[in-house]
Amino acid sequence: MTQNNPKKKNRFKPGPFEYHEEIEVEISSLTNMGQGIARTDKNWVILVPFCVPGEKVVARIYSNQKNYSEADLLKVISPSPERVHPECKIFGSCGGCQYQHIKYPEQLRWKKIQVEELLLHMAGITCKVDEVTQSPQQYSYRTKLTPHFNKPKDGVIGSIGFQQPGRRSLVDVEVCPIAHQTINDNLKNIRKEVTENSNTYKRGSTLLIRVDSNGQIHTKPDSIAVEKVGPMEFHFPAGSFFQNNASILEDFTNYVKSEAKSSGQKHLVDAYCGAGLFSLTSASEFKSVIGIEVSVHSIKWAKFNAKINQISNASFLAGKVEDLFKGVDVTGDETTIVIDPPRKGCSKDFLDQLFAFSPDTVIYVSCNPATQMRDLKLFLKSGFQLKRVMPFDLFPQTKHLECVMTLSRNNH
Asked: Among 83, 209, 284, 342, whose CB has the most other CB atoms within 10 angstroms?
């Protein structure tokens, strides 16, 4: 679990600790990035990965920041009863997972605490957070994997895998326990094909490996994947965004649908609709559903998915970024909006348009609770109230989390 990087010594900032000083600390909490938090007698924070709160550990300092230090975990002196043996043999040297050493119910407990802390410290509010909805599968759930490799040296490709924690160097990944079994079954041959054709790569690259619900493997971005969500079927290009834990998608979309329906509004607008996941799974509860998306290509697939699922009350618009709601022919006071923006959250320009449209209710789905909290402050300032917070664990064994917030202008 220890990473030695001689270059770091040259950039080491003087501080409360020397470079590679070893200290004994007790872990009290976890950050939302998955690191253990320890404090010295003088209340100086030390971040140590791969720990469980309550453990006493030996850590080795490698960085002093303005108000905290970072350290590698050297040894666990008193293990927590919540600690388990990781399923992955390279856990700790691969940056893909942060929590394989923690029992699953405890992972969920800490993810809920982290959402509560973000609400308090970033948005300045105390709000009840629902218990995290667990993933039916805790391993073998990822339907998409994107290993990387660097520019070949002397015609030879080195490690094919993921970045090491806190470093740019790659760790070689021959098998990934959180990836779907079909991906692992094909990974060996895909890696072999890449290394045997190293002369075709002039620079590093990222591989795309996606498995769909038909068991089909896709390695080309424009290859069309099919995913079943409950009774519905979605077609989309394998390289485009689509949630990659199929085991939880029916629960996830059903929850968004029930929260959207509970507003009692006639219309639903899905403002980052992609291939139509939320708009089409919710369509049965509304008079009309309108999906908006800046990508014309995604709109094409959303329309196709509406057609094959025989949904007649859904329409889709390729909106312009500066005027997204222009083609929406329903009024905000009769409308619920679902938004599922990228990790960076919503742009101010988008939120200004949304607030001007003035919907009754907004269901905000986010894969990054930190940017969601930043946006939440603007919703509250604009007159919305936070009604409900429901986290979903789409990414077991990792620090990542989906969070669904229900925001309303009215007190229903």
From this structure: 209
Q: Which of 51, 82, 402, 403 is catalytic?
A: 402
Domain span at residue 347 reads 108-136+236-408
pLDDT digits (tens, 9 = 90+) for 222-268: 999 999 999 999 999 999 999 999 999 999 999 999 999 999 999 99
Is residue 346 classed exposed, middle or buried when 0-12, 13-18 and 19+ CB atoms within 10 A define those classes? Answer: buried
Domain boundary among 203, 225, 247: 225
pLDDT of residue 209: 98
Report the CATH number that the domain containing residue 31 is assigned in CATH: 2.40.50.140
One-letter identity of residue 251: D
Which amino acid type is present at position 110?
Answer: W
Please answer whether residues 32 and 116 qualify as being in contact, where contact means their C-beta atoms are separated by less than 8 angstroms.
no
Distance, in Å, from the CA atom of 51 to the CA atom of 36, rounded to the nearest integer, reads 5
* 402 classed as catalytic: yes
Query: Three-class SS of residue 134?
Result: coil
Q: Are 210 and 194 in contact (CB under 8 A)?
A: no
Which of 94, 273, 367, 403 is labelled catalytic?
Answer: 367
Query: In the prediction, which pLDDT does 156 show?
Result: 94
User: Pick from 231, 257, 285, 288: which is nearest to 365 by CA?
Assistant: 257
Using only the alpha carbons of the chain, give its radius of gyration: 23
* Catalytic residue flag (residue 88): no
Answer yes or no: is 93 within a domain. no
Tokens of 151: 């520019």
pLDDT, mean over the chain: 94
